[in-house]
Amino acid sequence: MEMKQIQTLYPGAPASAAAERASRRQLRQWQEQRLRSLYQRTWEHNAFYRNRWLEHGLRADDVRSLDDISKLPVVSKRDFESDLAAHPPFGTYQGDFSAIRVQASSGSSGNPKPFFQTRNDWNTITNLWSRRFYAQGVRAGDVFQVVFTYSLFIAGFTGTEGAMKLGALVIPAGSGAVTPSERQVRLLSDWGATVIAGTPSYVLHLADVAEGMGMELKEDFKLRIGIHTAEPMTEAARRSIESRWGIKAYDNFGSVETGAPTFECPEQNGYHINEDAYIFEVLDRDTMMPVPPGNDGVVVVTTLFKEAAPVVRYNLEDISSIVDDPCPCGRTLRRLMKIKGRASEMLKVRGVPFYPTAVEGVLETFPELTREYRLIVDRVGQQDRVTVQLERRSDIDEINPLRERLERAFKVATGLAMNAELLSPGELTRSLKVEERIKVKRIWDRRGEKNV
Asked: Do residues 376 and 359 both lie within one domain?
């Protein structure tokens, strides 16, 4: 595809307004045409998928309509990992298109997995990032500070180019590992940043740092928008970011493998899916069959535009639902609802299932604590024990009353008895390496380890 074709098929903002408000009939027609093209292109250029499809009895012309997507096998992260092990260093799932760069998953569950990008892939993804930003209020002239890490992780690079396409002035500060947090805060203030883009946990950390420097968050900064992705942003975290910084905080869902498939609009009620560029399905995690709209299941994604390293019915293992209800913003794109957790991260302790994000709602009611936490699960004898490590904002004389209140609140929120371990100011921040992390990892399950 030439650049002109990409701009026509997958336009960036504001030219994307027509695609975002297209009729459901038009969106289905685009998806059907592009699925056929993807299938043919992938069959010809990608041995990983071609071999899998042949094993399932498929032929080169077996995908003719959108309904035929159900014929294709669902692909998992383990399938990619097995392919990498069998065909190092990059596997066969990259295909044979000429790629210009490689990005990789962060390795939050396993080793980093590389994904190639052709020039067309990259241009399309950055167009889709511009859609996110435009929907969330970014315009030409905004001063846009990026505090995502610039590494194999994709968000810093694609977010930068998406903002530049809108005419924003980008400050590529990167994470605290490159630009220390105190300097990040000075840049935000001195250079008059109006938009900050980063993980929710790091943006909250910057609020702690700024206040520690004696700065007033709502007076010493010009920020009006926060744009977040790369880790779950709970509603508690959103409220904290918005109330402390005095900004509107937007969440976005995506991954290195998929690019920029979704975005929140000003309604902040689910993620609009860029349905001209992706097919999203929600499947029952056991049967891998579609669930009705509004019902929870695992999120399965197909990238319609990708040349190198496409994902075709890729199980992200995230738990959510899709709703068809019209959005007051006027967009006709369906919405993926808030991610409830990752199937692999659901903990089952003493027979009770829960997701770690349940802890964040509790922390919102304890101003004595930062928003950093870590869950440690041990097996003591025949029983599971959960300890929540938390960080105090300042030294407290009476720790026991605070600990008791926390443990009662955790019991109410999760149905589980948990031990609260209160660490001194900065101790957990250093242990979790907040300054340099790409995305947060909250669970340390030690039940399989010896001598615990």
From this structure: yes
CATH number at residue 213: 3.40.50.12780
212: enclosing H helix or E strand: helix 200-212
Phi then psi for 223, rounded to 5 degrees? -60, 140
Q: What is the pLDDT of residues 25-41, one digit of tens each?
A: 999 999 999 999 999 99
DSSP state at residue 266: T
134 and 207 belong to one structural domain:
yes
Residue 32 placed within a domain: yes
Instruction: Decide which of 298, 313, 338 is a domain's last residue.
Output: 338
Reported pTM: 0.86
The 10 Å Cβ neighbour count of residue 219 is 7
Radius of gyration of the chain (CA): 22
Cα gap 315→300, rounded to integer Å: 4
Domain coverage including residue 333: 1-338
Q: How high is the mean pLDDT of the chain?
A: 92
Alpha helix positions (H), 378-439: 399-414, 427-431
Summarised one tens digit per residue, pLDDT across range 115-129 is 999 999 999 999 999
